[in-house]
Amino acid sequence: MTILVETHADYRLITLNRPERLNALTVEMAEALSTALDAAEADKSCRALLITGAGRAFCAGQDLTAIVGIAPAEIGNLLDHYNPLIAKLRALPMPVVCAVNGVAAGAGANLALACDIVLAGEGASFVQAFARIGLIPDCGGTWFLPRLVGMARARALAMLAEPLPAATAAEWGMIWQVVADDRLMAEAHALAARLAGAATLGLALTKRALDAAETNDLDNQLELERDLQEEASASPDHTEGVRAFLEKRQPVFTGRRS
Ligand code: LHQ
Asked: Chain-wide mean pLDDT for the chain?
């Protein structure tokens, strides 16, 4: 099994599972991941996702043994498998937490950056390894990096392909937090569980608004916020949130759309 899926009360843990290859990506694995995302979305009781890697690495990017000597068109075909996966992750109507448990290289780094909240163990690192093999950052790397760390740092990361330690990645705003390696999974599970108990529709619409903000001007974004706010306000979780505030108690969110 190239990925493992573990179902928790109201979230799922997906583990990239080719530890002997540092969880390097294959088409089979991308398809399995895609199926797992669809299944999570279809399950109404699943309200958050947690992604990590088995063994000592998060993901070493494309499995290089699979691309030796293949035609350029085949490289494009490979990305036709990976690109929908990145788009699906971004559009998934629930929060996605990534627990980067070791090195995240090439497409593996950008898979992590596509997630909503990235936690990393202090021994983890991020490498835009593409330049080492004459390629360009893909799986959204050229889109995510400048937005997260600014163009100057994005260019150097992409061109130098040096490993960026997790602590620097957090300092630069590329990821959310660094935690001690032996605390990583406990913290990541706690975060996923907390998000799974939140107002799911509101978070899903927040994702949409933030992604749209990357290309909208202010007028369009204000208009979008207006429309999405109407949608969010129709949810039972909005009603519950306001009621709980007025009653001075913790809200109990269900994640139901209506
Ligand atoms: C690997 C890999 C790997 C196979 C470690 N493949 N075996 C998308 C689609 C289409 C076209 C092309 O591009 C893309 C996007 C991409 O992702 S391109 C970028 C691909 N990734 C890389 O270039 C990274 C290659 N790996 C590394 O630089 C190092 O392995 C890192 C920095 C990740 C880890 O270094 P170490 O901790 O020193 O581990 P290691 O190098 O000793 O690796 C352990 C084993 O895993 C080793 O096998 P072995 O049989 O010697 O134990 C590696 O060959 C294997 N492995 N990455 N991507």
From this structure: 97
- From residue 29, give the alpha-carbon distance in Å to each of 3, 4, 20, 86, 228: 7, 10, 14, 13, 34
What residue has token string 């559009």?
A: 91
**Angle CA(134)–CA(144)–CA(12) in degrees, nearest 5?**
110
Q: Which atom of ligand 1 is nearest to 108's Cα?
A: 17
3-state secondary structure of 6: strand
Ligand 1: nearest atom to the Cα of 132 = 23
CB atoms within 10 A of CB 253: 22
Pocket lining for ligand 1, CB < 6 angstroms: 21-22, 24, 60-65, 67, 75, 78-79, 82, 103, 105-107, 127, 129-130, 132-133, 135, 138
- pTM of the entire structure? 0.98
238-244-245 Cα angle (round to 5):
95
Query: Cα of 221 to ligand 1 centre, how many Å?
Result: 40
Rounded Cα gap, residues 158 and 146, in angstroms? 10
- The closest residue, in CA terms, to atom 11 on ligand 1 is 75
101: CB partners within 8 A, 6+ apart: 52, 53, 56, 57, 58, 120, 121, 124, 181, 184, 185
Q: Alpha carbon 113 to chain centroid distance?
A: 6
**Tens digits of residue pLDDT in 57-110:** 999 999 999 999 999 999 999 999 999 999 999 999 999 999 999 999 999 999
Backbone angles phi, psi at 14, to 5 degrees: -110, 125
